[in-house]
Amino acid sequence: MAGFHLLITVIALGICYPFIAVLFGRLRRIPGPKAYAVSKWRLAWDDWTGLRTRTINALHQTYGPVVRVGPAEISFNSLSALKTIYGAGSGFERTSFYSMFDVYGKKNLFTFHGVKDHANRKKLLAHAYSKSAMLNGKAAELVTEKVAEYLRLIEREPTTASEIFSSIHYFSLDAITAFVYDDCGKTTALRGSQVDRALLNDIVDSRRRRLSWFAIHMPTLTRWLYTRAGMLERVLRPALPMQKPATYTGIRAHALKAWQTFYAYSETEKSASLDTGSVMARLWKHHQSQKEGGLHGLEIASECADHLLAGIDTTSDTLMFLFWALSLPENQQYQKKIIDEVQSVSGLEADASPEICDKLPYLDAVIKETLRLYAPLPASEPRSLPTNCMIDGYLIPAGTVVSMAPFSLHRNAEIFRDPLKFNPDRWLDKTAEAVEMKKWWWAFSSGGRMCIGMHLAMSEMTTLVTAVYRLYDTRIAPGFEGRSPGITSRFEVFHDEAFSSIAEHECWVDFQKRT
Ligand code: HEM
Predict the structure, then answer these.
(1) If you measure from the C-alpha of residue 265 to the centroid of ligand 1, how many angstroms do you get, rounded to a whole number?
(2) How far is CA 451 from CA 109, 130, 445, 458, 459, in A?
């Protein structure tokens, strides 16, 4: 009988615990809806329906800059929290959420949990991605060459170029594969390789959102499901969130092949390829310079594959939104300003070079505004600290997941007037209001975990946009009026919120050559 009572008490406590934790736990003072505080599955439901980021933004509008979005998860939306969590040397670490970006079972810059492992790896790569490396030498030549190929695509295959979701993906794919792998893995999608163009199939498959959901919320089950073989695999196949080949399989296979090609080189060939300065060759050089240890082959492959994956959608989604926004009838004034700027700068008559394009103030404002309204990674960037800390006046216990999102920071109506309106001119002001806006702009993250590819992305974007508007006007293609393109980020589709008609992974723009 006593055993029975004990069992009932344990069950009752199990059921009541989440409610007790909400009422008496250490996070009880943090504002937010109780349903989110009781169970992590409430936010997981928003993830499932693809509404996480928009819901969190709405919660901030209701509850203010600090909102409890899970039993042990808090979202912030203030400059003070930004500095505490994402400032240089903050000590905050990436959470296990990022493990889904491990490649071939190995950690990389994106997925290292601890500050030290991450810093050691970043040190090896920082120079390759520095601004000076991007504006001069091989990287600048590479970007110039890819931009020229894009212009040739517009002339040679106008219909292909006109669907800018795909054609700009070809551009970013060719650029990042050349930068990371050089001859061992560079693609030629712009020049017409159908095999390389097919790598995009991985990206546009909308079932990858379901797979991301399972990978984050049920990681062990997901891993188990995808590693079964034989009879069991056939039985389980209908239950898979995304049929095999699963997301990025083609791209990861391409990345692995590039590494294997490099590895099979003779020592002389390897040494010769060091001159290319590719990311892969640099990592190999480091490996060789170590007396003991160094990097495992799969660690090099994982790091390179991560840069490849990080460098495709981000840059191309941004460029696509930029061309689309400038092509809308209501934004022609902004397109005209950019054309005027590009035409007035000397040195651009023959060709667009990254170094000159880096210094165009109106272009910079257009890119800033595009990244504000259409950040390709708009969602929360979760972090945690192994010790207690204070953020915005609240005691945050060790291990609590804290996060901020560019989406919410960039839509704060107290900072950005008329936040949903695309208006590059807002960045040209020299007022105190404009200075404040710059502090809230967070498209590339900040601190130690800031995007390493920022200067490469900026160089690709400034050079391509300049080259296009030097020669062409752009307009929304007939049939695409009244629609916003949509992009996938994790388990959500993002688009311009003013439009109700969304075309996922599709965007049509006409390039009209000026005479
Ligand atoms: C417009 C283009 C881009 C945007 C807006 C962007 C944005 C970001 C953001 C927000 C993060 C932090 C994510 C997080 O902590 O959750 C990040 C990290 C990263 N990005 Fe980018 N990115 C862009 C282009 C690129 C390119 C071209 C590369 C090519 C290598 C790249 C490589 C990376 C890597 C390796 C990290 C991890 C850095 C670290 O943890 O130290 N990104 N990026």
Answers:
(1) 30
(2) 10, 11, 6, 12, 14
Give the max Cα distance, the chain: 93
**Secondary structure class of 6 (helix, strand, coil):** helix
What's the confidence (pLDDT) of residue 273? 77
How far apart are alpha carbons 313 and 488 in whole angstroms? 9
Q: What is the DSSP letter of 48?
A: H
Q: Are 450 and 387 in contact (CB under 8 A)?
A: no
Strands (E), 55-124: 66-70, 73-76, 93-94
Lining ligand 1 with CB less than 6 A are: 109-110, 122, 176, 306-307, 310-311, 314-315, 318, 371, 376-377, 381, 443-445, 449, 451-453, 456-457
- Which pLDDT does position 204 carry in this prediction? 83
**Is residue 252 helix, strand or coil?**
helix
With a CB cutoff of 8 Å and minimum separation 6, the contacts of 513 are 471, 472
Distance CA 9, CA 350 (A): 80
Expressed in angstroms and rounded, the spacing between residue 113 Cα and the centre of ligand 1 is: 16
- Bridge-based pairing state of the strands 394-396 and 389-391: antiparallel
What pLDDT is recorded for position 315? 98
Name the DSSP letter for residue 498: T
pTM assigned to the model? 0.94
Burial 195-230 (b: 16+ CB within 10 A, else e): ebbebbebbebeebbbbbbbbbbeeeebeebbeeee
At 36, the amino acid letter reads: Y
Contacts of 213 (CB under 8 A, 6+ apart): 44, 47, 48, 241, 491
Token digits for 193?
Answer: 């390789």
pLDDT at 132: 94
Query: How many Å apart are CA 11 and CA 24, to the nearest integer?
Result: 19
Say if strands 483-489 and 501-504 run parallel, antiparallel, or are unpaired: parallel
Ligand 1: residue whose CA is nearest its atom 35? 307
Output the residue whose Cα is nearest ligand 1's atom 19. Answer: 451
- Answer whether 13's CB lies under 8 Å from 455's CB: no
Return the pLDDT at 47.
96
Query: From the first residue on, what is the mean pLDDT of each consecutive set of 10 residues in the chain (515 residues)?
Result: 65 64 79 96 96 98 98 98 96 91 88 91 94 93 96 97 98 97 95 94 83 88 82 78 69 89 86 83 88 83 93 97 98 98 81 90 97 98 96 97 98 96 94 92 97 98 96 97 96 95 97 93
